Amino acid sequence: MLLFTLITEKPWWFILFCILLGAAYTLILYPFKSLKSTGEKTPKLLRLMTTLRFFTISFLAFLLLSPLIKSYLREVQKPIIVLAQDNSQSILLNKDSTYYKTDYLKSLEQLKNTLSEKFDVKFYSFGKTLNENPSITFSEKQTNISTLLDAVYDKYEGQNLGAVILASDGIFNQGSNPIYSHKKLKTTMYTVALGDTALPRDVLIKKVRSNAIAYLGNSLPVEIEAAAYGYYGSNFILTVMHNGQTESVQTIVSNASRYSKTIPLNFDAKAKGMQRYTISISRQQGELSYLNNVKDVFVDVIDGRQKIMILANAPHPDLGAIKNAIETNQNYEAQIVYLNELPVDIITKLRAYSLMVLHQIPSMDNSTKKIFEALDIMKIPRLYILGSQSNLSVFYSLNEGLSIGNNRGSTNDALPRMNKDFNLFTLSDETQNTIIKFPPLQVPFGNYNATGDAHILFQQQIGATLTEMPLILFTNKNDYKVGIICGEGIWRWRLQEYAQTESQSASNEVLTKTIQYLSAKDDKRLLRISSTQKTFEENENVLFDAEVYTPSYELTNEPEVSFKITNEEAKTFDYQFSKSGKTYHLDCGILPVGSYHYLASTQTGGKAENVSGQFTVVPLQAEFTETVANHQLLASLSDLHQGKLFYPKEMQNIADEIMANETIKPISYAHQRLEDLINLKWIFALLLLTLTAEWFLRKREGGY
């Protein structure tokens, strides 16, 4: 419903002057001038032209009073009902699988249609991801209920959200426990208990624990949890295979109807690269599924870890935060060392490290001359972290690519903002979106001046002003790389990110990619292939990035880059990289489970360049590991949200329950808006029409 009123800043009696002005201007033209032009005009046409002129002039004068339109829009919003259906494979892992694929889906559609008569129904499916208005296929390989609850909160908070209907078996294998995710969502929740709580007859590899990375020549521990349900007194054979060879054979005897056993094993990491171990348990008659009888484990065997020293002047919360972030990548081992702990023979101590993180060093006591002499001799890359304890005058003298002028010992709070022109490495879109929510770092106040070859990752935003001053930058000096973080307080990034997302993936990615870039030895290849991982899950897209350089090591994307993948059956698949900015990107899509080799090729500098490597696509069996429905979880969620648990046969009762709930009702909203009358397009059209009509009549009657 739309209502409006007309208001003006001037007194309303000023309209009288507008009318008088319109009448005076009209009398100049009509009837005196018109009568002189011709005596043949009919009185009706003369009155019409007089009226058009009078209206146009009076209305134009009225617009000079700056009139405003105050409009009122009253809108009634129906309650929103979110209907969320679990679309994971575990729903069908019971004797009622046919029912869920047929009659249940009809009942679900009927419930949706019934609710749509009075409510605004939003229909979603969830598994690993959340999809709106989906087709239900029960094919998702993972279940994340907490993501669903968070997404509903983010999307409908502040709207008239009446209720959430959650149809699931209560099994989740990704994300946090939904019991702990419910608190933000303040609405009624009804749950539909799907699946079967009866224990099925099944033999399975329930869980395998191993390190993702092992070191050549070391022992590789593997812990296998095998389970058997409904096979009391039966014997099973557990086999571990590696490269077609049998590594271990174990006999398991089930002495209970619900039997589980953990078997620890150790293997030798004899070969470098991605190693695949296949663990299987013998099949039994009458099992629920044979898919969970086999599980693959992939271990990346490497030569050894890179050691990183975090050298600090004094204890600081940044130190632990940086160390924890670095060690999320198992290729690195970080050690915190204080200045007073360094031995006299510094070179001997530093020889074992591939990168030095210098936290507020050089410091005010100016006792670090020997350290920098040793670093220069050994050409060790370094990452500076500046702060209130840094000796900036000594830092300038090192000529590391950054100077800060007019500093008087004071600091600024600087927010990180991504520099879109940065190209040394890439950060994921999710990380870039999270960075803008990071708290500020405390940076030295002053005028920042970076050398011309500096690569700026983050710029400083001071308050609401985005500056060109660097917050994180990288330079090259002689035969080593230099990174500079211009402020302290990184620990706040990790703390706030965890508080908001229960994850530290964004801050980890920033720090680990910084460490990777600085510690990596210079790559002289003209074609470089990179990926964020060596192992992909079977429902993940396989992604690669590429860089091509000229013989003078200038980045170029003129040549085409081809990519050939070979699977275990020696079948090949050909791809072509897409050009993206100055680099290349390739999305191979979702590939079948298995091990793959790749060969990337291009022509640059008149020569052929090739890069080979390997990656693995691993199966997802999460939905086959836990097959007993968790109705207790669903009952707890509905109780916590003042709702109720229903079973599939009772689904239509949910509509009655919602309609009887007096708290779920429409809400009326009133919107008020002020707008200048002169801004309305139809006003211009009206004035143009009256002037055109008058001109046409005068022209037709010989008035000109």
Brief rundown of the structure:
It is built from 17 helices and 38 strands. It is α/β, with parallel strands linked by helices and 704 residues long.
Describe this protein's structure:
By secondary structure, this protein is α/β, with parallel strands linked by helices. The chain folds into 5 domains: 2-74 and 673-700, no CATH class; 79-196 and 628-665, Rossmann fold (3-Layer(aba) Sandwich), CATH 3.40.50.410; 202-302, Immunoglobulins (Immunoglobulin-like), CATH 2.60.40; 306-519, Rossmann fold (3-Layer(aba) Sandwich); 527-618, Immunoglobulin-like (Sandwich). Helix content is 27%, strand content 37%. The protein contains 17 helices and 38 strands. The strands form 8 sheets. A 9-stranded mixed beta sheet has the order 17-16-18-19-26-25-24-21-22, with helices on one face. Strands 5-4-3-6-7-37 form a 6-stranded mixed beta sheet, sandwiched between helices. The chain has a 5-stranded mixed beta sheet with strand order 9-15-14-11-12, with no helix packed on it. Helix 1 packs antiparallel against helix 2, helix 2 runs antiparallel to helix 17 (681-700) and helix 11 crosses helix 13 (505-519). The model is unreliable at 33-38 (pLDDT under 50).
Helix count, per DSSP? Answer: 17
CATH class of the largest domain: Alpha Beta
Question: Outline, from the CA principal axes?
Answer: globular
CATH third-tier fold name of the largest domain: Rossmann fold
Helix content: 25-40%
Corresponding CATH architecture of the largest domain: 3-Layer(aba) Sandwich
Q: What gyration radius follows from the Cα positions, in whole Å?
A: 36 Å
Structural class: alpha/beta
Unreliable stretches: 33-38
Give me the CATH superfamily of the largest domain. Answer: Class I glutamine amidotransferase (GATase) domain
Q: Sketch the major β-sheet.
A: 9 strands, mixed
What portion of residues belong to β-strands? 35-45%
**For the largest beta sheet, what order do the strands appear in spatially?**
17-16-18-19-26-25-24-21-22
Instruction: Tell me how many strands there are.
Output: 38
Overall mean pLDDT stands at 86
User: How many domain modules?
Assistant: 5
Distance between the termini: 48 Å
